[in-house]
């Protein structure tokens, strides 16, 4: 069993079960991730995907959510997490890396590096709206606001407190995201 927790309506591929608190197209199981226990048996899930999800859960609930994910993962099961990197965004703020000339949704790192801008002379690497979204969310609907802020060390500490030991930080080429792979 492979779970895409906090899936919204996005499908990630064949064999994945989408779980979200909202009734949406492509959601297979409607479940609020802050309601425990999850509707899965202990040690029953092979893989969990949580892309841009944890930041929408209150910082008061993060450890409980991660503990519940650990409970349902099989030994040797994998979990993949992606959240905004607020540490990198603060470096961008204080280092002059925020500029409206940077593409908001670049298709590649090269598009950011090679942007032409008189305002920042090409030194900017985060669009102001992308920076704001890292902290506040896109706010496209009532649940699309951020209730938590992550740096790599905060997320790793939370995972360790939840009982995870095999934690790998994966490099994000734009330094906008924290990507973590975990094995139970």
Overview of the structural elements:
It contains five helices and seven strands; from the N terminus they run E-E-E-E-H-E-H-H-H-H-E-E. The protein has a single domain, classed as Vaccinia Virus protein VP39 (Rossmann fold). The mean pLDDT is about 95. Helix 1 (about 60-70) links the parallel strand 4 and strand 5. It is an alpha/beta fold and about 180 residues long. The radius of gyration is 17 Å and the shape is elongated. The protein has helices at about 60-70, 85-95, 110-115, 130-135, 150-160, and strands at about 1-5, 15-20, 30, 45-50, 75-85, 165-170, 175-184.
Short description:
With 184 residues, the protein is of the alpha/beta class. It is built from 5 helices and 7 strands, in the order E-E-E-E-H-E-H-H-H-H-E-E. The chain has a single domain (2-183), classed as Vaccinia Virus protein VP39 (Rossmann fold).
Q: What is the CA-based Rg, rounded?
A: 17 Å
Largest sheet: 7 strands, mixed
Fourth-tier CATH superfamily name: Vaccinia Virus protein VP39
Strand and helix order: EEEEHEHHHHEE
Q: How many helical elements?
A: 5
Q: In one word, what is the shape?
A: elongated
Given helix and strand content, the structural type is alpha/beta
CATH topology: Rossmann fold
Helix content: 10-25%
What strand order characterises the main sheet?
3-2-1-4-5-7-6
- In total, how many domains does the architecture comprise? 1
The termini sit apart by 15 Å
| Reported CATH architecture | 3-Layer(aba) Sandwich
Mean pLDDT: 95
């Amino acid at each position: 069993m492979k779970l895409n927790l906090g899936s919204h309506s996005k499908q990630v591929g064949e064999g994945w079960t989408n779980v979200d608190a909202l009734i949406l197209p492509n959601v297979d199981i409607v479940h609020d991730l802050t309601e425990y226990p999850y509707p899965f048996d202990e040690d029953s899930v092979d893989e969990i995907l949580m892309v841009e999800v944890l930041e929408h859960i209150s910082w008061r609930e993060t450890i409980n959510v991660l503990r519940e994910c650990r409970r349902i993962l099989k030994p040797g099961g994998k979990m993949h997490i992606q959240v905004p990197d607020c540490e990198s965004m603060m470096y961008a703020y204080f280092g002059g890396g925020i500029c409206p000339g940077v593409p908001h949704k670049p298709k590649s790192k090269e598009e950011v590096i090679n942007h032409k801008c008189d305002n920042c002379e090409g030194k900017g690497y985060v669009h102001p709206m992308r920076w704001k979204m890292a902290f506040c969310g896109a706010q496209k609907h009532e649940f699309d606001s951020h209730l938590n802020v992550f740096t790599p060390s905060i997320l790793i500490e939370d995972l360790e407190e939840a009982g995870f030991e095999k934690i790998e930080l994966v490099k994000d080429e734009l330094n906008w995201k924290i990507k973590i792979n975990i094995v139970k």
